[in-house]
């Protein structure tokens, strides 16, 4: 396997080039981060894989697999602004966002042509992708064993007409994903357990995940595995597969939710009250659309649930405490009322 990659093949593009000063252009080498450890960083650069020291004054927690940086061959000197960022944070902890991947172009939202198919989950992933700045594609696996894969494809297309839908056998995707898996492109997979992510990743990288990493012949002739989380695709391009990818959840995704439910978002703007909850308020444009049959009430329910979930997952520690306190107060008041009614 060759270990050298022209920059364009690694995903280098003009919006990264533009960030370099003339001096940097003359003296430093662009590199793509393939793994991040506590005190070392693995990267791919045009001359091959490198193990680098982190930049002075920058915690490795601020570096993501897929990031572009500039190095002098020994140390990563700085990171370049990202095109997209996938991150997460634990609910209600207010913890800093944990970076999962950077500069992913396409997120394959994977679900199966069976009971795993769930519009609410697909919408959640669509919102997550859009909030991160990544283009979503719906991939329906197990098309080979579904009685009517076209029907599943139609159901998926109904969720969001703007999103491409591909139904396939994850074991043999052929060139069905060739629009997104090509030189310079970076993809990632998201979906629940058992839908075929590992199977698809293996097919796209042409190998077992454990062996798909790029191997470097070092001076002693030993093999060192690099590119741990940045896997080269058979058709060109890269697959980012970090452990956190599988536990991605919605947070700070308000803009992604609005983009995914833009029909409801627009209607809500026409409600009489700015804080309309779209239940029984007079002048509610959303309820009017439901009454007119142009909006599915189930979709309104999913939108509201997702917004609540995002709000809770995005709140800071102080906000979470305030919510708990308010809830405690409410419960205590309710208990007091109850005992008053009982005449205690
Ligand atoms: N016939 C068929 N089998 C599939 C397809 N995709 C996945 N499978 C099978 O489904 C099972 C689960 O697939 P995995 O690739 O392990 O699923 P996963 O999404 O990686 O699951 P986790 O590792 O739990 O996240 C395996 O036995 C696969 O062989 C498909 O498109 N067609
Ligand atoms: Zn309303």
UniProtKB/TrEMBL annotation:
GO process annotations (BP): ribosomal small subunit biogenesis
Cofactor binding summary note: Binds 1 zinc ion per subunit.
PROSITE patterns: ENGC_GTPASE, G_CP
Residue span, CP-type G domain: 96-248
Family listed: Belongs to the TRAFAC class YlqF/YawG GTPase family. RsgA subfamily.
Domain EngC GTPase per the UniProt entry, residue ranges: 102-246
Subunit text: Monomer. Associates with 30S ribosomal subunit, binds 16S rRNA.
Binding site for GTP: 141-144, 191-199
Native organism: Rhodobacter capsulatus (strain ATCC BAA-309 / NBRC 16581 / SB1003)
Enzyme Commission (EC) number: 3.6.1.-
Alphabetized CDD domains for the sequence: YjeQ_EngC
Name recorded for this polypeptide: Small ribosomal subunit biogenesis GTPase RsgA
Transmembrane segments annotated in the record for this chain: none
Localization terms from the record: Cytoplasm
NCBIfam families per UniProt: ribosome small subunit-dependent GTPase A
Pfam family, one: RsgA_GTPase
GO molecular function, one term: GTP binding
Keywords of the record: Cytoplasm, GTP-binding, Hydrolase, Metal-binding, Nucleotide-binding, Ribosome biogenesis, RNA-binding, rRNA-binding, Zinc
Keyword Transferase part of the UniProt annotation: no
Binding positions (Zn(2+)): 271, 276, 278, 284
This protein's record includes keyword Metal-binding: yes
Required cofactor names: Zn(2+)
PANTHER family: SMALL RIBOSOMAL SUBUNIT BIOGENESIS GTPASE RSGA
InterPro entries hit by this protein: G_CP_dom, P-loop_NTPase, Ribosome_biogen_GTPase_RsgA, RsgA_GTPase_dom
């Amino acid at each position: 396997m060759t270990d050298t990659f022209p920059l364009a093949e690694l995903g280098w593009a003009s919006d990264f080039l533009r960030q370099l000063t003339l001096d940097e252009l003359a003296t430093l080498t662009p590199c793509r981060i393939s793994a991040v450890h506590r005190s070392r960083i693995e990267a791919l650069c045009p001359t091959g894989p490198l193990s680098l020291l982190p930049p002075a004054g920058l915690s490795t927690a601020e570096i993501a697999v897929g990031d572009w940086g500039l190095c002098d061959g020994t140390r990563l000197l700085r990171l370049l602004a990202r095109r997209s960022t996938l991150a997460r944070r634990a609910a209600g902890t207010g913890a800093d966002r944990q970076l999962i991947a950077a500069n992913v172009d396409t997120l394959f939202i994977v679900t199966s042509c069976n009971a795993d198919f769930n519009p609410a989950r697909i919408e959640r992933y669509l919102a997550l992708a859009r909030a991160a700045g990544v283009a979503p594609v719906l991939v329906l696996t197990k098309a080979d064993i579904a009685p009517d894969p076209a029907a599943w494809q139609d159901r998926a297309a109904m969720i969001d007409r703007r999103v491409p839908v591909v139904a396939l056998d994850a074991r043999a995707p052929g060139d069905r994903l060739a629009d997104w898996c090509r030189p310079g492109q970076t993809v990632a997979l998201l979906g629940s357990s058992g839908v075929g992510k590992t199977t698809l990743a293996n097919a796209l990288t042409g190998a077992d995940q454990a062996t798909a990493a790029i191997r470097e012949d070092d001076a002693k002739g030993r093999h060192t595995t690099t590119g741990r989380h940045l896997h080269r695709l058979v058709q060109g391009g890269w697959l980012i597969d970090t452990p956190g990818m599988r536990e991605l959840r919605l947070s700070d995704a308000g803009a992604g939710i609005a983009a995914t439910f833009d029909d409801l978002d627009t209607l809500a703007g026409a409600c009489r009250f700015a804080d309309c909850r779209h239940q029984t308020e007079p002048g509610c444009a959303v309820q009017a659309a439901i009454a007119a049959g142009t909006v599915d009430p189930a979709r309104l329910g999913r939108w509201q649930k997702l917004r609540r979930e995002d709000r809770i997952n995005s709140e800071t520690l102080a906000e979470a405490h305030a919510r708990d306190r308010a809830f405690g107060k409410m419960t205590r008041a309710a208990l007091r009322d109850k005992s008053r009614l009982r005449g205690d």
